[in-house]
Fold this protein.
Amino acid sequence: MPKQVDHESRRRQIAEAVCQLADESGLEGVTLRDVAARAKVSMGAVQRCFGTKEEMLVFALGHIGERVTARVAARLTASPAQSARTALGHTAAEVSLVQEEQRAEARVWLAFVAQAAVTPTLAGILRSNYAGLHKVFTQLIAEASDTADPDRAARTLLALADGLTTHVLIGHLSPAEALGVLDGQLNHLWGERTG
């Protein structure tokens, strides 16, 4: 009897291989042949899971987003009685990808951001991801502060968290310095009052 293959599990295995290769040499270093070798599957298996390289990259980008979302959810679930302020701080810290253990993920994320500048499908996924984060940030800010414009504050915080990823990755800021910048912005936000 032929061996049954869990299609979704195989797709995630391939997505992990894409991420590992992107971490090592950027997305330009990701070929179907190398992905198959890294995932320890045949080229045919990769082609059965994904019709095109772009489809494979789209799935891998979604896979990264799911990992970040799962980390945020786990962090919030670990302390369910958190205030909206604490929840926002934890979420922004996770999204910023500045911790040492997130370094590889940050490199892969930025490789996808760069590729999205010339790949409309990837850009659409990133826009959707950012829109979801913006909505969460806006809700938490509205609950936790008296700011006159939670939408604008959420955009500012999201842009800051996202930009800190690059600053840490290239060595302009240490992870501790980046988290200090983030804390400063949050403290500023909590000090704001409607006029």
The chain has a mean pLDDT of 90.
